[in-house]
């Protein structure tokens, strides 16, 4: 954020900052200019930076060979001879000196897949490659993938069957789309054979796959597409954003045209997976000790983004008709420009008030203007949002926070939304500052685990924020509410990883440090596939990294999640967010709320105190939710002991002794360096009882507030 953050200012006027007829006329002019210019520019539907082609890789300056973190000791992808790229060494000419290899390469720049104007775009790619195996079927290993992901490095331990895409201890932690060419049957991933092609989304358990092994039931797949035949293959992958259809074609030649019949297809809305920009590339692995030695070479690659404005039907229009349309269009545009100039002159003549002056007319209506060049969120009218929410009816209210009500709504195009409506008059009790803070922080934050602001409105003393409606509700509902006991172990871990990633982004990914100040289960919303979305920035504040480590603020947060230093001194830093995350992690692991007033034993009311006492008694695993302890393996038990250990480290009463969110993310991703630090054996610091805590600004918040009521 920092210098690039949205410029917000408030002004008071008896009408909207920009006269509606003039605005609509200018929009019309721009629209007509675009329409009548289309015949001249119809062939330019591909943005130059969004399309590339490598007939060979003799020049690989636009390719990045991904360097892995220190845990990795194998060989990396490298340029080969004759314009090739070797993702893994050729086993026929190289004896590997290491146990396993991971080779990853990506296009040098992230590719943009989402636009404010178009939404999610379509794309197509084709590539020619060769898999070289020296062992007999099925003794190869492990395969390669074409991928589109928000993260280019290989997660820790992602050798072999994990393709450098997922950690074996967190199989669903990443967000990606991939097409796999798999030469090893991994039963734990649901593979169909030791030679198959699959479509993967956020997991290596393929959503659809084709068996190309000798056991294949399709005669066109074997032996033509048998991955052990050392053939040179060409694959084509298309995604249509209008139909959400993914299609894959494949042939065993580098010169053939694309076959008429697909080998794979699947419908999936990738807009739920992709961020605005993603890395695009290839990853290949082998794990000699488990699978065998296998080489992967890439010979060529083409990639294209297709925008919705591409109009194929217009290409048959005659040049005479084109010129006529252009002439008519230019004439209309010229007339409208003259009219707009006259109206603007007339309006300015009537009002001598400077554009930068703040005035208060008798009507007292409030307008907040935003520099829209730095944000893509939509501006709604109060009339639109009243219609969407049935005039903010009680039947549509789905949540209430300290500063706001939240309503479910439906826009005219059928889109489900959640509208956060600040309570009372915007000018009273610092509600204006609250709204500006939330809007300033959210409008330009982009992260897969942060609930994205979709729009806003400030009109007639009303301040409203518009979000996507989250039908699954909030996390507390599934931990200790109406859906208690329904979350699986791996889902809970994926939720924690998502929240940790979002907090790391807020703390260190925006230039300035953004403090959330109210991390709790009710502020974690869940998508249809149970991805976590951190929400409610109503208490967020920006502080500069160059400022002191902590700044004093009005106490805010929710009882049970507030760090000790905030309670006693009012000092709030990023480490207070870490404390809140630690409490959240304990809730996710135990299935109990931070404060459980129904517990008869006072030592068990506060979750942190109860888990700490179990640690002192060497019974830490007993804190684990009883439904998660059923049929738990030794490895899973150790994994969750690590989560509880990490959570208690985050809840250390000393802010300086807590890890930062980057360390938390690394630990959840399988790096055990932090967990080697033993927890203290002394009695933990105990804060005042819950009724003595400072009042919470969001105490009554059901930040399912953007979700259905529980």
Automatic annotation (TrEMBL):
- Indicate which residues the UniProt annotation says bind ATP: 420
Q: Which Pfam families match?
A: Lectin_legB, Pkinase
The UniProt keyword set, sorted, is: ATP-binding, Cell membrane, Glycoprotein, Kinase, Lectin, Membrane, Nucleotide-binding, Receptor, Signal, Transferase, Transmembrane, Transmembrane helix
Cite the residue spans of the region called Disordered: 679-710
GO CC term (a single one): plasma membrane
User: Where do Polar residues bias regions lie?
Assistant: 697-710
Protein kinase domain residues are 392-675
Give the subcellular location: Cell membrane
Lineage top rank: taxon: Eukaryota
Name a GO molecular-function annotation: ATP binding
Q: Which GO terms describe its biological process?
A: defense response to oomycetes
- Membrane-topology descriptor: Single-pass type I membrane protein
Query: What family does the entry list?
Result: In the C-terminal section; belongs to the protein kinase superfamily. Ser/Thr protein kinase family.
Protein name, per record: Protein kinase domain-containing protein
């Amino acid at each position: 954020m920092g210098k690039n953050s949205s410029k917000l200012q408030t002004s008071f006027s008896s009408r909207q900052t920009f006269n509606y007829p003039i605005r609509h006329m200018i929009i019309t002019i721009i629209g007509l200019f675009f329409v009548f210019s289309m015949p001249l520019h119809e062939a330019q539907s591909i943005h130059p930076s969004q399309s590339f082609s490598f007939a060979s890789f003799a020049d690989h300056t636009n390719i990045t060979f991904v360097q892995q973190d220190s845990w990795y000791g194998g060989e990396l992808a490298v340029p080969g001879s004759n314009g090739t790229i070797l993702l893994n060494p050729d086993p026929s000419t190289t004896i590997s000196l290491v146990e396993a290899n991971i080779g990853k390469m990506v296009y040098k720049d992230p590719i943009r897949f989402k636009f404010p104007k178009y939404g999610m775009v379509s794309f197509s790619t084709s590539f020619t490659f060769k898999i070289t195996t020296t062992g007999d079927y099925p003794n190869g290993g492990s395969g390669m993938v074409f991928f589109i992901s928000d993260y280019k490095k290989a997660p820790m331990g992602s050798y072999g069957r994990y393709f450098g895409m997922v950690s074996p201890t967190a199989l669903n932690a990443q967000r990606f789309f991939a097409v796999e060419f798999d030469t090893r049957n991994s039963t734990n991933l649901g593979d169909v054979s030791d030679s198959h092609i699959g479509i993967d989304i956020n997991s290596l358990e393929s959503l659809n796959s084709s068996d190309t092994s000798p056991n294949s039931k399709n005669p066109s797949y074997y032996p033509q597409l048998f991955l052990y035949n050392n053939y040179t293959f060409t694959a084509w992958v298309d995604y249509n954003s209008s139909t959400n259809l993914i299609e894959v074609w494949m042939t065993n030649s580098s010169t053939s045209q694309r076959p008429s019949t697909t080998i794979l297809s699947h419908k999936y809305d990738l807009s739920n997976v992709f961020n605005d920009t993603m890395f695009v590339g290839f990853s290949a692995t082998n794990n000699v000790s488990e699978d065998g030695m296998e080489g992967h070479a890439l010979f060529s690659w083409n990639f294209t983004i297709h925008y919705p404005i591409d109009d194929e039907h217009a290409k048959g229009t005659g040049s005479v008709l084109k010129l006529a349309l252009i002439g008519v269009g230019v004439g209309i545009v010229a007339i409208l420009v003259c009219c707009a100039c006259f109206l603007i002159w007339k309006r300015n003549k009537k009002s001598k008030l400077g554009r930068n002056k703040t005035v208060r007319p008798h009507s007292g209506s409030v307008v907040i203007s935003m520099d829209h060049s730095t944000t893509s969120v939509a501006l709604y009218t109060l009339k639109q949002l009243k219609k969407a929410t049935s005039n903010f009816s009680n039947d549509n209210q789905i949540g209430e926070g300290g500063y706001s009500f939240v309503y479910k709504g439906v826009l005219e195009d059928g889109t489900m939304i959640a509208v956060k409506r600040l309570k009372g008059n915007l000018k009273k009790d610092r509600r204006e500052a609250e709204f500006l803070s939330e809007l300033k922080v959210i409008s330009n934050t982009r992260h897969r685990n942060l609930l994205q602001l979709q729009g806003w409105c400030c009109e007639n003393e009303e301040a409203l924020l518009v979000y996507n409606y989250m039908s699954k509700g909030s996390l507390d509902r599934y931990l200790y509410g109406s859906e208690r006991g329904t979350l699986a172990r791996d889902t809970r871990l994926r939720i924690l990883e998502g929240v940790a990633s979002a907090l790391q982004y807020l703390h260190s990914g925006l230039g300035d440090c953004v403090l959330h100040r109210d991390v709790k289960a009710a502020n974690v919303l869940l998508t249809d596939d149970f991805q976590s979305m951190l929400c409610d920035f109503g208490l967020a504040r920006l502080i500069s990294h160059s400022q002191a480590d902590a700044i004093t603020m009005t106490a805010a947060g929710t009882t049970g999640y507030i760090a000790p230093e905030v309670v006693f001194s009012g000092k709030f830093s990023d480490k207070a967010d870490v404390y809140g995350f630690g409490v959240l992690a304990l809730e996710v692991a135990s299935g109990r709320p931070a404060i459980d007033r129904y517990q008869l034993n006072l030592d068990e009311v506060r979750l942190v105190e109860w888990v700490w006492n179990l640690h002192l008694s060497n019974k830490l695993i007993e804190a684990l939710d009883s439904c998660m302890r059923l049929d738990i393996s030794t490895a899973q038990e150790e994994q969750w002991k690590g989560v509880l250990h990490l959570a208690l480290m985050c809840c250390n009463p000393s802010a300086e002794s807590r890890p930062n969110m980057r360390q938390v993310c690394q630990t959840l991703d399988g790096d055990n360096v932090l967990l080697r630090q033993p927890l203290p054996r002394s009695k933990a610091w105990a804060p005042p009882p819950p009724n003595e805590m400072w009042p919470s600004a969001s105490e009554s918040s059901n930040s399912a507030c953007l979700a259905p009521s529980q």
